Amino acid sequence: MLRTTLPKVSTRVFVRNLASHASFQPTTSSAIRTNWTRDEVSKIYNMPLMDLVFKAATVHRQHHNPAEVQLCTLYNIKSGGCTEDCKYCAQSSRYTTGVEAEKAVKPAEVIAAAKEAKANGSTRFCMGAAWRDMKGRKNALKNVKEMIGAVHELGMESCVTLGMVDKAQAEELRRAGLTAYNHNIDTSREHYPKVITTRTFDERLQTIENVREAGVSVCSGGILGLGETADDHVGFLWALATMPSHPESLPINRLVPIKGTPLGDDPAMKEKQLTYDTVVRTVATARVVMPGSKIRLAAGRYTMKEPEQAMCFMAGANAIFTGKKMLTTMCNGWDEDKAMLEKWGLKPMKSFERVDKHLGEQSHDSKEKKQCGGGCNSATEVRL
Ligand code: SF4
């Protein structure tokens, strides 16, 4: 891969091998901004839905090959027994959900699962552990690093979600070969305390900052259907879109209510049930305000019919979790997903095709441009 740094290019242009991506022509893309106002995000979110999808599809085509969808497989490396109180989670030790606390799995098992995922076409492998944080988990960290190294050796992008980490831990993970660290903000700042009380929204942001500063790609998104309002969707997207740089990956989960959890057992949740159009609206708004991020349809995708998923791809989603399971909930399988992509003229994204650690530097104002030469490397690269 050749990299040429072009100073004074204010928007990212990706040029790919046009022989193999014949239908994709790069265009002058809209700038990536991190200075959105909440009102601006709200206006986009509240556009007539078809107009919003059209706008999102247009932005998507300016920044991505619209034929590509990343296939990612999630593997649970430590199930249950988590001390946190996330009101949607089957793995919290505070709720009786039938999910027992298990010991962390050995690296060999995880590596075998990564090989299986690769053989089935996944190019990113995500490993999740039900931990609050990594404090005092030296042995666990050693094992996770071994897993990351093995996934890297397989030529796959790696991602882990291990709870809160400090900068030193994030750096250790980067040195082991980690591509991305997942830490969701879950919902808006306002709605967050109604869902989780054992760690604050700001603690979430701190972990994300630690990861970013360590030079690891940030994967951060949330869950729709936690009893929130439309304004909370706006607040959620605004929080992500105004981070110092946009998350490289943005998972959008749709709540799968689990019996035994407070949200799964709350009869009032039936009235607040999420409608499909809200999912599309959120995906499309995310695409417009975070043009460079990968928008990942995550848990609950199996509840959407195929044409509903296709509409999400049209609205800018370009990554999915696929495989046997989504931690404790169901997942669409590899064969089903490959058939779906083929039917809709889509194809799996190659690994490391798009891993942008710092999405958003283009929002530097002109004064900053003078000081830094107009953009940081990732914002001014032409990739051939
Ligand atoms: S979502 Fe994560 S942090 Fe929250 S209870 Fe579940 S495993 Fe623990």
TrEMBL record:
Keywords: 2Fe-2S, 4Fe-4S, Biotin biosynthesis, Iron, Iron-sulfur, Metal-binding, S-adenosyl-L-methionine, Transferase. One of its GO terms (biological process) is biotin biosynthetic process. Pfam families: BATS, Radical_SAM. Its cofactor is [2Fe-2S] cluster; [4Fe-4S] cluster. Its EC number is 2.8.1.6. Pathway: Cofactor biosynthesis; biotin biosynthesis; biotin from 7,8-diaminononanoate: step 2/2. InterPro entries: Aldolase_TIM, BATS_dom, Biotin_synth/BioAB, Biotin_synthase, Elp3/MiaA/NifB-like_rSAM, rSAM, rSAM_sf. HAMAP family: BioB. NCBIfam families: bioB. Belongs to the radical SAM superfamily. Biotin synthase family. This is biotin synthase. It comes from Yarrowia lipolytica. The lineage of its organism: Eukaryota, Fungi, Dikarya, Ascomycota, Saccharomycotina.
